[in-house]
Amino acid sequence: MLTAQLAGAITGVVLVVGALMFLTTTGGQQRDAQRDLRFYVARSSIESPPPCVWMFAQDRGSLRGTPSAPADLPVRSSMRRVANGGATLVERRRIGGIDYLIRTGRRGDMVVQAAMDLRYQQQERQRLYLALTVAELAGLLAALVTGQVLARRAISPLEEALRRQRRFVADASHELRTPLTRLHTRAQLLARRAATADIDKDLRTIVSDTRQFGEVIEDLLMSAQLGQATARRELVDLAAVVESVAEAESARAQARSIALEVRRDPGAYLVLGVPAALRRVVGALVDNALDHTTPGGHIELTLDRTGKRREVVLTVRDDGVGFDQAKERLIFERFKHGNAGDGRRFGLGLALVREVVDSHGGRVSATGEPGRGAAFTVRLPSVSVEAAAAR
């Protein structure tokens, strides 16, 4: 529609300009022709008139004219009319298939007639029409190209907004499922332990899960803002994040008879990032491992440092259904299905992992084998203790 509107606007401009040029050119040709004929009738030589003009004179019954004049000229009726006392006569006639502008008047005692061939004026107007046609076609072509470019630029933000909206809905449906599952599991345990001393601990855990539930909603709303980087980076101890997620998921792992273990050396594993987003990364990896590990299985979260501590490496390894290594790229795409195990969806949560890790300047990779588990490795730029103290 934008292209059509632009083409219509250019067409309208060309038509207006063409109409003005046509009126100006036609009016100018008409005025110039009448002025010239008036001069020719009054003063020009009968035998040697200007090009494209034929002259005739009648004096006392004798008629003379320009040599090689067309056989159908002069217009004798007009000459007789003026000879009989009529006024100067200006007329346009088509004679022998040719248009002429004819002026008949008196020069002293003579009746003089000048006929101008209008074919050259018509040819000039045809050239004008051709130029306007070419200009119109060029304008329409330019409108097509320009309209497409402008339309894409105009629609691109709308497409991006729609894409973000769809992704937000998908992210929300996936991300909210994990804390809701935790709350459901905690509530079941709380009901079972209502008469024991463990109730206080379960209540505190439910409060913690509820807080994380709110953080998920806040993060999703923040991510839905178009193109605005509102989240501020800060120093994050990835070890603390891993421990927190492992503790939060321990009840679900226990309910499914899955061992959940964290292995790391003492000390801080500092990275620069958004705490809530990094928590989403660890949570999504653990959630994926729980979904694909059968009862009685084992999940191990390992933290390490590499390259003179320039990278913090988190590995989430399970001994579950695994996946085909040839499908590694696909499992980080949204809503993709694995070919191993029960075919649960890999893509949404893991796609979020890749997006967050990429935005933090890191890398994520996966290795696996059907029936023998999988390992997901996240590498993030580390921050030294000295650099952290300087900040």
TrEMBL record:
Report the catalytic activity: ATP + protein L-histidine = ADP + protein N-phospho-L-histidine
Q: Which InterPro entries match?
A: HATPase_C_sf (IPR036890), HATPase_dom (IPR003594), His_kinase_dom (IPR005467), HisK_dim/P_dom (IPR003661), HisK_dim/P_sf (IPR036097), Sig_transdc_His_kin-like_C (IPR004358)
Main EC class the enzyme belongs to: transferase
| A Pfam short name | HisKA
Q: Where in the cell is it found?
A: Cell membrane
Enzyme nomenclature, EC number: 2.7.13.3
Membrane-crossing segments per the record: 6-25, 128-151
The protein's UniProt keywords, in alphabetical order, are: Kinase, Membrane, Phosphoprotein, Transferase, Transmembrane, Transmembrane helix, Two-component regulatory system
**Keyword flag Transmembrane helix:** yes
Q: Where is the Histidine kinase domain?
A: 171-384
Q: What PANTHER family does this protein's entry cite?
A: HYBRID SIGNAL TRANSDUCTION HISTIDINE KINASE C, TWO-COMPONENT HISTIDINE KINASE
Protein name per the record: histidine kinase
